[in-house]
Amino acid sequence: MQVGDEIIEASLTTGGVPVVRSTTEAQKRRRAFAAAVDGAAWTFGIVLAVALRFEFMMGPRGWIATILLGLIAAGIHIGAGYYLALYRGRFTYGSFEEVRVLGLLVLVETILIALFIIPLGPLIGVPRGTSLLAAPIVLLLMFGVRYLARLTIERARKPGADAEPAIVVGAGYIADRLLHHVNTDPTATFRPVALLDDDPAKANLLLRGVPVIGRIDDVKEAAERTGATMLIVAIGQADSSLLRKLSDLGEKAGLRVAVTPTLADLQSGAESPSDVRDISIEDLIGRNPVDTNVEQIAGYITGKRVLVTGAGGSIGSELCRQLAKFGPSELIMLDRDETGLQMAQLGTAGHGLLDTNDVVLADIRDPELMNALFEERRPEVVFHAAALKHLPMLEQYPDEAWKTNVLGSLNVIQAARRVGVTTFVNISTDKAANPTSVLGHSKRVAEKLTAWAGEETSMRYLSVRFGNVIGSRGSMLPTFQRLIAEGKPITVTHPEATRYFMTIPEACQLVIQAGGIGRAGEVLILDMGEPVSILEVAKRMIAMSGKNIEIVFTGLRPGEKLHEELVGHRENLERPFHPKVSHARADVISPERLDKAGWEARMKANPRNNDTAIIEPINLEKAQHS
Predict the structure, then answer these.
(1) 424: Cβ contacts below 8 Å, ≥ 6 apart
(2) Burial (Cβ within 10 Å: 0-12, 13-18, ≥19) of residue 172
């Protein structure tokens, strides 16, 4: 709560609307008043201390001497206060900084007065211990006035009675920041009325005037007790499983569920604690905190020339945004999609002029161009995110998967080897584990080629494998959102289908981290948490929309798995460096052994779906009754 240097005076409010006066006039008046109050505290404190000492039985000489001493002490304090800028706006009125300086000033003044009174007190009729007796009274008065001022302002700035009553889940750092912001903002749209926390040590906590009244499971009882209509999740490390649980509890209690920004967003200053928003489907299936070792990352990124292929895509553009924070000497963004490059440049340079050499329009399928580009720009670190990724499309056009995902990857790998790239990170997919699709088989070959380059160079040429990223272009969630917005049925392949999900920022954080901890020829597999039911996601999205949307089951498409896998049958995992990154050794294939005909034959020989998957389209009514 800040009072001293603010233009708006709490005492000048009419109907809750602040009245603004001249900044200079208001400040001078407040500071002069604060000095007068502190001076009066010294005078009153000394007079009261002496009066109590003599039980108010003093002669005129004693009263006069005591009052004069009090006035002298007041004058010394005010003079010293102005010298220290205590009454010239250096400190916020009632802040801890001001109170600390004020306490030191009173202590020094007490000692100085004591040095004067102890030898001369009997001569002027004042007890030797006057200043020592008066000091606690003086401090109590000064601190008390400031506390009352803060209390008055805070009450004036609390949200109005029309603000939505809210229960806050969590009574830690984020909740404390949230309450601080909201309770000093009269325009806030909600007002916290209760806290819930599972920590037994916080069972009786009163945090900024808001009590902890139960545990997380007590949402319904708390709502009935307080009349709350909103549930705010203020837990910095809340993962998707906890958010799903709280969303369900809130829904059963008839509460609107919202979340605060993540701890990382708060610490970076990107958002403030009061930036509360309604819970989204992305929160429910993919919000997972990441512990990133910044020093490890900076060691191989900072000051280096970094190239990102596929920079215009969802993963590539986010990679570029995050890599730019680590200070590479040069960030080269490569893509064949000029619009995607413009978006990537907006995210890193703050403009989309496309007239600088940080953006490169090129196709990885052109080996001569890749060699010339790498020779000219000499990158030291490469993130290879360029790929064709839509499974059903590649089932129809497998030649394109071979040209881009296999040969295109080989072109980038070979160009990187020629110029001595020290770190090469190939962005792979969970579909490369026990592949059943053209996409999976093509990305599996790219993993093997990367592993071959790692063995040949002994440099960090490695692959990073993860599942679906939330919000990427053409992915499931944006498709569902568009269908719901248009009121069309949502198509789900199978009622039992599950997928792994991760947010784009989290995936990119871990990809960059993997580049710092991976070893030559490895496949690093990101921890995707628990697989999520596609049907459950669809139901939640429909419920959150408030619309009556039909769900239609279409059956698994060729090459599509019922349940995705992250780890191949022959892969053994270890986690030596990061709790969310597993390491496995990749199989190796050299460019000379590439055989498109053999590749196509292996795909035909392998199963095209999980053995348990139902290929035929499923009748909606039968599925809903089963």
Answers:
(1) 381, 382, 384, 413, 416, 450, 453, 454, 459, 460, 461, 462
(2) middle
Residue 284's Cα: distance from chain center in Å? 15
Taking Cα atoms as reference points, which of 201, 185, 49 lies closest to residue 128? 49
Q: Do residues 602 and 535 lie in contact, with contact meaning Cβ atoms separated by under 8 Å? A: no
- Closest by CA to 570, choosing from 592, 585, 588, is 585
CA dist 451 and 460 (Å) reads 9
The residue to which tokens 């509460």 are assigned? 255
164-279 and 294-469+501-529+565-605 have identical folds = yes
Query: Would you state the torsion angle of the CA atoms of residues 319, 324, 327, 331, taken in this order, to the nearest 10 degrees?
Result: 80
**Rounded to the nearest 10 degrees, how much is the dihedral formed by the CA atoms of 619, 621, 625, 626?**
0
H-assigned helices in 19-129: 23-53, 60-83, 96-124
CB-count burial class (<10 Å; 0-12, 13-18, 19+) for 369 = middle
Mapped onto helix, strand or coil, the DSSP state of residue 311 is coil
Gap between the Cα atoms of 231 and 400, Å rounded: 49
> DSSP label at 159?
P
**Which whole number is the average pLDDT over 100-122?**
87
Average pLDDT, the chain: 87
pTM above 0.85, yes or no: no
Cα–Cα distance, 466 to 443 (Å, whole number): 12
Neighbours of 16 (CB within 10 A): 10
> Other CB atoms closer than 10 Å to residue 392's CB: what's the count?
13
Annotate 593-619 with b (16+ C-beta within 10 A) or e (fewer). Answer: ebeeeebeeebeeeebbbeebbeeebe
Q: What are the pLDDT digits (tens) for 29-67?
A: 888 888 999 999 989 998 898 888 877 777 787 788 888
**Tokens representing 438?**
């053209």
Domain boundary assignment for the chain: 8-156, 164-279, 294-469+501-529+565-605
Residue 18 has pLDDT above 60, yes or no: no
- DSSP for 582-613 reads EEEEPP---GGG--HHHHHHHHHHS-SS-TT-
Q: How many whole angstroms separate alpha carbon 461 and alpha carbon 416?
A: 10
CB atoms within 10 A of CB 256: 16
Measured CA to CA, the distance from residue 165 to residue 180 in angstroms comes to: 16
Contact predicate 487/328, CB 8 Å: no
Residues 6+ apart with CB under 8 A from 212: 171, 194, 195, 196, 197, 202, 203, 204, 205, 206
Give the count of alpha carbons within 13 A of 26, CB side only. 15
Do residues 469 and 529 lie in contact, with contact meaning Cβ atoms separated by under 8 Å?
A: no
At residue 433, does pLDDT exceed 50? yes
- Phi–psi pair at 185, nearest 5 degrees: -130, 100
- Assign domain 164-279 to a CATH class: alpha beta
- In the block, residue with structure tokens 């007041």: 74
The angle subtended at Cα 242 by Cα 241 and Cα 247, nearest 5°, is 100
Determine the average pLDDT of the residues in 587-592: 96
Of 342, 204, 240, 304, the C-alpha closest to 512 is 304
Compute the radius of gyration of the chain from its Cα atoms.
34
CATH class of the structural domain 294-469+501-529+565-605:
alpha beta
Share of the chain above pLDDT 90, in %: 57
